[in-house]
User: Fold this.
Amino acid sequence: MVLQTSEKVAVKESDSIEYEVIRVHKLFDLDNSTLADYIADRKCFVVISDKVYNLYGEKIAGYLEKYLRCQYVLFPLEDNENNKNFETIQNILYEAKKLGLGRKDIMIGIGGGIILDMVGFAASMYRRRINYIRIPTTLIGYIDAGVGIKTGINFDGAKNFIGAFYPPEICLNDYAFLQTLPIDELKSGFSEILKMAIVVDRHLFDLVETNYKILLEEQFRNEIGYKVMHMSIYDMVQQLSTNFHEKDLMRLVDFGHTFSPFIEEYSAYRISHGHAVGLDIAISTEIAFLMKLLDKESHDRILKYF
Ligand SMILES: NC(=O)c1ccc[n+]([C@@H]2O[C@H](COP(=O)([O-])OP(=O)(O)OC[C@H]3O[C@@H](n4cnc5c(N)ncnc54)[C@H](O)[C@@H]3O)[C@@H](O)[C@H]2O)c1
Ligand SMILES: [Zn+2]
Assistant:
């Protein structure tokens, strides 16, 4: 809406935020056209984690070859915190331009939180903003990095310092990727689930507490795991939805993220995001207990995971 007086012209426009996080079974199977239907007749720049490419590249390339009607590039990228930076973003932008990606075309990110954060950020800048699709392949990707609207990179030694609030067109979760995720990465993702359970969802806490062992043994790929992930996603969206742009900085979902950025930075990213969140949860729980804000039983129920 545009308003005017004789002295000023005022613009009042609010971008509505609309996107879906959808579970898709066998996303890259040759008889599943879900992703192709979303892409439709658009050129497509697909950034994929190099590890995911090594494991699933042939299948994904076969899928794109079968379905995509326009030009596309499948671009494997090394994903670690040390190259979650401007140089990598520039490479993505450069390669997208080389493909001739236009304003109505699309970027896709396939990987963990690092790839999703970088592709979202690159899409927020390319030709001033083009659409993008998230395809997470890690537990953190499914229940956290794929769920909100934050994108970004590390900058000058500071974690996620530069970025944009920019929602994807859609986030497609195929949990089959979990079968190759190392146990250490699963535990890393578990910290974010635990965070959610502690701050808003007692039922989720009980569920993971009862099923912790089997969840890890079966890489969350069982009915309880699917339920746990769905509950975590729902809880996260509920929390974010009233405060997408973080005008209120007192966010419950930031539990576990007070000390963790410093742990990540000072370990030169040898300690992963999820593990740093886990350490933060342990420290915060201990502080709350010492300050008599938390009873002994709750303290012990949380700390037994660390
Ligand atoms: N934007 C957000 O709201 C948000 C939320 C949480 C975390 N993050 C960011 O996400 C990052 C952490 O995400 P992450 O834990 O997914 O880490 P990650 O992206 O580094 O992935 C973890 C490791 O697993 C590998 N991998 C990915 N999928 C695999 C698969 N299916 N099989 C085998 N290996 C696989 C990756 O190559 C990588 O080595 C951090 O940079 C964090 O800041 C962002
Ligand atoms: Zn986090």
Observations:
- Residues 163 and 234 are 24 Å apart (CA to CA).
- DSSP finds eleven helices and ten strands in the chain.
